[in-house]
Design a protein that fits this description.
This protein is α/β, with parallel strands linked by helices. The protein has helices spanning 39-48, 92-95, 154-174, 190-202, 214-223, 236-244, 258-267, 290-295, 310-322, 341-347, and strands at residues 2-5, 14-17, 19-20, 27-36, 54-55, 59-67, 79-82, 118-120, 123-127, 137-141, 145-147, 182-186, 206-211, 227-230, 248-253, 268-276, 299-302, 332-337, 355-360. The protein has two domains: 2-147 and 328-360, Quinone Oxidoreductase, Chain A, domain 1 (Alpha-Beta Complex), CATH 3.90.180.10; 170-304, Rossmann fold, CATH 3.40.50.720. It is built from ten helices and 19 strands. α3 (154-174) crosses α9 (310-322).
Length: 362
């Protein structure tokens, strides 16, 4: 099969013919129909590193074409979305519904004694995040897949597995935003727009989006922001307090730059929560005054994958989309071919581009 292989740090994405093993155990063979370009994969390929060679791509949607003998949750012909959340299903966290912080995610992978899922010229090829969606086909553990309705279009479906789970999940799961509450979204990128969609679904009364690019802020209005603030031309803390009167109930930081996170803390009202999602630099973090946090009953919480349970949440977001209650179409700025990944990532530097999705695997 054709796959985009990253052979080493900084060596880009090169299409090669590689071999895919037959499914065993709980593995599912998926014919990939759409695969989103997420910055996390680019980071692995350019500066984080890991096992090489590797097939990256963790926003995957496709059709089940085969299953291992122990698979019970999907069947051939199902339309599925994959997620980088890997969970065993038996540890204490999984049994309490917190699959996003499973204690044994390695249970979804083959053991070192087993032959690799992917190989190239007889040598093993790593599979990014248990998915490897930059390819015509993928072998994925059934715990990393959720079934979606057949009428769901492929490109927006692929985005649900990471960006939607993270953004909307931060609002609906991590913060449990309630009707009438005030939400601030810092950073009007694709994941931030999903937080806006989540806030709308939750019934938030006021949804404020801050960013430094007017084009992104205009897009935020289309997604449902009630107010937008250009933090390059106005003090965002003052602006939020002017709009809310006494600070926000929930602030979601999708930027992750220390100075911006500090602003988020100052935007909070009494009883408010600051949720850390984005990491924009090595100095990402925040200094918290214990006295202020105590007297105002405020909290700071890190959020991983929107505290999501993929089996529950992916079908839910697909349903919201099909009912016209969640805007995913406007997130798909470009559809590209498998050989155009590097060009696709380059286009993401343009603030008007929300997300790029591979839909041509020929």
């Amino acid at each position: 099969m054709r796959a985009s292989v990253t052979k080493g740090l900084g060596q880009g994405f090169v299409v090669e013919d590689i071999d895919l093993a037959d499914p065993v155990g709980h593995e599912v063979r998926v014919e990939v129909r759409a695969s989103g370009l997420c910055h996390s994969d680019l980071s692995v390929a350019t500066f984080i590193g890991g096992e090489f060679p590797v097939v990256l791509g963790h926003e995957v949607a496709g059709v089940v074409t085969g299953t291992g003998p122990q698979v019970t949750q999907v069947k051939e012909g199902d339309h599925v979305v994959g997620s980088l959340i890997q969970y065993c299903g038996t540890c204490v966290n999984c049994l309490s519904g917190r699959t996003h912080i499973c204690r044994h995610p390695e249970a979804t992978l083959r053991t070192p004694e087993q032959p690799p899922r992917l190989s190239w010229n007889g040598a093993p090829v790593a599979q990014g995040m248990g998915l490897g969606g930059f390819a015509q086909e993928a072998l994925i553990h059934e715990n990393q897949l959720a079934v979606i309705p057949r009428e769901m279009p492929w490109a927006p479906a692929a985005l649900i597995g990471c960006g939607v789970l993270t953004g909307a999940g931060a609002v609906l799961n991590s913060a449990n935003v309630r009707q009438g509450e005030t939400v601030v979204v810092i950073g009007a990128g694709g994941v931030g727009m999903n937080a806006v969609s989540g806030a709308r679904i939750a019934g938030a009364g006021t949804i404020i989006v801050t960013d430094i690019e007017d084009a992104k802020l205009e897009r935020a209005k289309a997604f449902g922001a009630t107010h937008v603030v250009n933090s390059r031309s106005a003090d965002p803390v003052e602006a939020v307090r002017d709009i809310t009167g006494d600070g926000a109930d929930h602030v979601f930081d999708f930027v992750g730059i220390r100075s911006v996170t500090a602003q988020g803390m100052r935007m909070l009202g009494k009883g408010g929560g600051l949720y850390l999602i984005g990491i924009g630099g090595n100095d990402a973090g925040i200094d918290v005054s214990a006295i202020s946090a105590l007297t105002n009953s405020q909290k700071v919480q890190g959020v991983y994958m929107g505290s999501s349970h993929l089996k529950r949440d992916i079908p839910f977001y697909a349903s919201m989309y099909l009912q016209g209650l969640m805007n995913l179409d406007d997130l798909v700025s470009r559809e590209i071919g498998l050989a155009d990944i590097e060009k696709g990532y380059e286009s993401l530097k343009d603030g008007t581009t929300a997300r790029v999705v591979i839909t041509d695997f020929s």
